[in-house]
UniProtKB/TrEMBL annotation:
Keywords: Transferase. It comes from the Bacteria. This is CDP-glycerol glycerophosphotransferase. Coiled coil: none annotated. It comes from Actinoplanes lobatus. Gene3D superfamilies: Spore Coat Polysaccharide Biosynthesis Protein SpsA, Chain A. InterPro entries: Glyco_trans_2-like (IPR001173), Nucleotide-diphossugar_trans (IPR029044). Residues 6-131 form the Glycosyltransferase 2-like domain. Transmembrane segments: none annotated. It is an enzyme of class 2 (transferase). Pfam families: Glycos_transf_2.
Length: 735
């Protein structure tokens, strides 16, 4: 009797990561599978780990071969696979426990050729975050779709977040080429060959980003790696030309943004003897890309394209170093042609520089001179919402006479706001600091049907005038009640700030720990018929009865043991499960809490959290060091949090990893343990100087996770550092 699913796992010298990868497979809720392990000539202790899993679980089988590379090793695994379905896992990655249950169930329901799910990137310093290349293709569930119907799938270039029907795989005789970046040609061909494809928004794969930079995708500036990247791109371009020319705009734009940029970045550090070959690679790729794609990419990338086409190595080196330093601004080649403001566009008509780069490439179109206005700090005063931030017209200095205005927009109503200029430490000549106040009385007067409101910034610098909606840096802004409504600032998906007026929704007004239970109290909107609280998670929901009163109040008692699942959390890296409480179809707005409430249960903890939009989340996680408060006093940062039994709080450090290494430098915090709390204090003035250093708060081997209520004041600027959060971890970046 053959298993329903075959999981092919090639490995080579991954003893540091292999056990965690295989453990995530052994814990799958879908049990009818086999794991075909392919030892591709591994030289370290990986084989011993693989043999131990095979001995402990008959579903794991081992195949060995001389080292041939990832693509051929996958092909070997397919030859030994016996399942009805087929999937692939890279040996340093992790798979969420419900992944294959959801993917196989989807294929059983739709009879599609393959099913794919969303992906997360992860490591200790950056936490868990959305994978860039999967953010659009898997933003929503799309059963039985196709790449020609949904072109975003054309840049779904990885093979491992999918389950394939084996007879489909054999019908088209897929084989991985013996190169790195072997996924994309196979994945795109499968999308084109498929009858239909299922897309799942739930994360089905966790893609590791190693601190050491050892993985194939992280060794992207090694010449052999770059050469394989270009070969893979050429195979994809040939396929699109031959089979799906309607996908050319999507694929060409993606390769220009990702692959071409990667080739140019290699010029920053490449040896002199590598330059001719590197230039040849870049020109091979630019020679295949439609020039029409240049209309969709920024001016800086257009300059990279033309520098490759013209063979200007000096310019390519400057561009690469400029990008590496984070300096995507004007004036890259001031010694030849400056990047000229749009008003001088008529100068040098049709001319070219000595290497053949058109002079117009160095000039900026009006759309490039856009206004970037961002609120970096937000707080509620007694009479107003106070916003502080920065504004600049990109590529232009802010002269002394520059003006900045703010307007509150609610439907057709536009209300001017007062703006005060404030200094911006280290902001440079282009940045204007501002403070503006949105009076509570103005918000209270907005008709209730208007819903969300936004702020429009208008700036004039010299003859240039620009407008833009105000952006927001803070990920977890605090809301406030005004009259009968709750006003919640939020960062929209486009980075812009919106101020949402919320009324008539279920609210959480209180929470307490009571023994082994978390007790929630709140208010229900009139007419609510639901009598249970549903805790939605990646797969199976948890249901809790509601006790309701005649005044619309409710109480929900959540036994922690009903939620804790210590052996199989949804997040295989952090060991956490996120639960989203709902009453009927309504989320719960958090209006009565300013901090987390947590209930320990054995070596696990159930905690209240809040979403960026102020809605209630619950997090079930291991009892580890977590931060619930962050204070800044001059150069001194103090981070504190609750203490749990059995957890070591003696050594908490700010850690900086060495470039391309798992070796790190630690800055030890001064620790205080007081009753049920811990506090870690660091004077940032004592940190060793390092250019572009990024320090992460660690406790032992784990980056400290911060409770969402503690993140409302971030980012914060110190004298020499920026304190910010990345996926719940705390970072100090040299500014």
């Amino acid at each position: 009797m053959f298993p329903r699913l075959s999981i092919v796992v090639p490995y080579y010298d991954v003893e540091r990561y292999l056990a965690a990868c295989l453990d995530s497979l052994a814990r799958q809720t879908f049990r009818d599978f086999e794991v075909v392990l392919v030892d591709d000539g591994s030289r370290d202790g990986s084989a011993g780990i693989a043999r131990a899993f095979c001995a402990a679980d008959p579903r794991f089988r081992l195949v060995t071969q001389e080292n041939q590379g990832l693509g051929p090793a996958r092909n070997t695994g397919v030859e030994h696979a016996r399942g009805e379905y087929l999937t692939f896992v890279d040996s340093d990655d992790l798979v969420p426990r419900h992944a294959y249950e959801m993917l196989v169930r989807s294929l059983d329901r739709t009879s599609s050729s393959l099913a794919g799910g969303n992906a997360r990137r992860f490591n200790n310093t950056a936490g868990v975050r959305q994978s860039y290349v999967h953010r659009f293709a898997f933003a929503a569930d799309r059963p039985a779709t196709h790449v020609l119907e949904f072109p975003e799938l054309a840049i779904d270039r990885m093979v491992w977040n999918k389950v394939y029907r084996r007879r489909f795989w054999d019908q088209f005789a897929y084989r991985f080429p013996a190169i790195r970046y072997e996924d994309y040609p196979v994945t795109l061909k499968a999308h084109l060959d498929a009858v239909t494809v299922d897309c799942l928004a739930a994360p089905t794969y966790y893609w590791r980003e190693r601190e050491s930079g050892e993985s194939i995708t992280q060794q992207k500036f090694v010449f052999g790696n770059l050469e394989d990247r270009v070969v893979s791109a050429e195979m994809v371009l040939d396929m699109v030309d031959r089979r799906a020319p309607e996908l050319r705009p999507t694929v060409h734009h993606h390769l220009a943004q990702i692959d071409l940029t990667t080739v140019v970045q290699a010029f920053a550090a490449a040896a002199e003897h590598e330059m001719p070959a590197l230039l040849g690679l870049g020109r091979r790729l630019t020679g295949r890309l439609d020039e029409q794609v240049l209309e969709r990419i920024p001016a800086f990338q257009r300059l990279e394209y033309y520098a490759l086409r013209s063979g200007d190595v000096e310019l390519l080196q400057r561009l690469a170093r400029f990008r590496a330093d984070g300096g995507l601004t004007a004036g890259v080649r001031a010694d030849r042609h400056p990047i000229l403001p749009w008003r001088y566009r008529s100068a040098y008509p049709g001319s070219r520089d000595a290497t053949g780069v058109p002079a117009d490439v160095y000039r900026l179109a009006p759309k490039e001179l856009e206004l970037r206005a961002t609120a970096t700090h937000l707080e509620w005063a007694d009479d107003a919402l106070v916003l502080r931030g920065t504004a600049e017209i990109l590529h232009m200095p802010a002269d002394d006479d520059a003006t900045l205005r703010m307007t509150l927009l609610a439907g057709l109503r536009a209300t001017p706001l007062r703006v005060r200029r404030i200094p911006v430490p280290g902001g440079g000549e282009r940045v204007t600091g501002f403070e503006t106040r949105v009076p509570r009385s103005v918000l209270a007067a907005i008709p209730r049907q208007r819903g969300s409101v936004r702020l429009m910034a208008s700036m004039r610098s010299g003859p240039v005038r620009r407008r833009s909606l105000l952006g927001l840096q803070t990920l977890y802004p605090v809301g406030a009640r005004i009259g009968d409504a709750w006003y919640q600032p939020a960062r929209a998906s486009d980075g812009r700030m919106q101020l949402r007026r919320i009324a008539g929704e279920a609210e959480l007004t209180g929470a307490v720990a009571d023994g082994d239970a978390l007790v929630l109290t709140g208010r229900l909107p009139s007419g609510t018929a639901a009598r249970e609280l549903v805790l939605s998670r990646a797969a199976r929901d948890v249901r809790v009865p509601l006790e309701t009163g005649p005044d619309g109040g409710f109480t929900a008692r959540i036994p922690v043991r009903a939620v804790v699942d210590a052996t199989s959390p949804d997040d295989p890296f952090l060991g956490r499960t996120l639960l989203i409480p709902k009453i009927g179809d309504s989320l719960l707005l958090v209006t009565g809490l300013s901090g987390a409430v947590s209930v320990p249960y054995g070596d696990r903890v159930l905690s209240i959290a809040r979403s960026p939009g102020q809605y209630l989340n619950l997090v079930e996680a291991p009892a580890r060091v977590s931060a619930s408060a962050i204070t800044v006093d001059g150069d001194v940062i103090t981070v504190s949090g609750p203490r749990w039994d059995g957890v070591d709080y003696r050594r908490i450090v700010w850690r900086r990893f060495q470039p391309n290494s798992d070796d790190a430098v630690d800055a030890l915090c001064a620790m205080t343990l007081d009753g049920g709390r811990w506090a870690a204090r660091l004077d940032t003035a004592a940190l060793e100087p390092a250019d572009e250093a990024d320090w992460t708060l660690f406790a032992g081997d784990y980056a400290v996770q911060a409770e969402t209520f503690a993140l409302t004041s971030l980012p914060r600027h110190l004298a020499r550092h920026l304190l910010y959060t990345r996926a719940g971890t705390l970072h100090l970046e040299t500014s």
